[in-house]
Amino acid sequence: MAKYALVTGASRGIGRAVALKLSFVGLPVVINYKSNRKAAEQVAEEIRLQGGTAELLPFDVADKLAVDEALDQWEQRHPDDYVAVLVNNAGIRADNVMFMMADEQWHNVVNTSLDGFFYITRRLLKHMMPRKRGGRIINVASLSGVKGMPGQTNYSAAKAGLIGATKALAQEVAARDVTVNAVAPGFIETDMTRDLPQEELKKMVPAQRFGKPEEVAALVAFLASDEAAYITGEVININGGLYT
Ligand code: NAP
Question: Whole-prediction pTM value?
Fold first, then answer.
């Protein structure tokens, strides 16, 4: 039985770096994305070039039917394998001050983070828990969910919700050798932060720079490793000292 890693939102940014890193440490990787097929194919190609195994599995994480259909198909193609490492990374921003926030801005952001986490994790847990096969679930939260960020009530609520779910689920499944942790990045250089005034914001960060996706990926890979078996229910900040 082969153990796979599934990384949601792995076509770009942090998810892409996590997929590459998990492949580098020896896991075959399933690359999820929503619509950017070209970018996802490039990630798969990079993984193959470094000697790893990658396959694409596009679906919208917030769409229950799409999640079930894609995972059904994957399970049919892999009757003897299971996803042992799940990285719930897919996420979006739609910033606005609360009094002007549209229903869509609220629901799209909350559903992508929270419904996505719920539909995928519930489904894959069934394969991690039997006979203490074990598993690793790593949720990509945010400083915004720990501290709260003005202009991001939707995003802060989604990420704080993800942190609460991480802590609760960790206690439910610890006896089955499944760990559940969250990472909470500060400002990381990706498409998501491209429109922000980086020079201004850097001054607020004690490390005086944005983080790199590869730095978050290294932390995720540690939490996914055998060495991290006794760490569960934690939220690990990775933010250059921005908030402690
Ligand atoms: P990004 O560069 O914008 O990439 C987002 C990724 O998520 C893409 O692969 C995108 O796929 C995918 N995605 C978006 N909605 C999806 C959906 N409904 N279903 C499936 N995939 C979906 O973002 P990033 O900066 O790497 O962020 C990754 C995670 O880190 C997010 O959860 C974000 O909230 C969190 N985070 C980021 C920062 C930061 O500073 N960058 C800080 C804290 C936390 P397509 O390519 O197909 O669109």
Answer: 0.98
Report which secondary-structure segment, H or E, holds 159. Answer: helix 153-173
- For residue range 103-127, list pLDDT tens digits in order: 999 999 999 999 999 999 999 999 9
Ligand 1 contacts CB of residue 15 (under 6 A): yes
Tell whether ligand 1 has an atom less than 6 A from the beta carbon of residue 111.
no
Q: CB–CB of 228/173 below 8 Å?
A: no
User: Rounded to 10 degrees, what is the CA torsion of 151, 112, 192, 158?
Assistant: 40
Ligand 1 pocket check for 121: Cβ under 6 Å: no
Spatial CA neighbour of 27 closest among 58, 50, 11, 60: 50
Is the C-beta atom of 192 inside 6 A of ligand 1? Answer: yes
Nearest to 43 by CA among 100, 89, 79, 93: 89
| CA-based radius of gyration for the chain | 17
Q: Which residues contact 236 (CB under 8 A, 6 or more apart)?
A: 181, 182, 183, 184, 219, 223
Candidate of 6, 8, 12 to mutate for ligand 1, largest count of ligand atoms within 8 Å of Cβ: 12
- Ligand 1 nearest-atom number relative to CA 62: 18
- Let me know if 155 is a catalytic residue: yes
SS3 content of the chain, % helix, strand, coil (to 5): 50, 15, 35
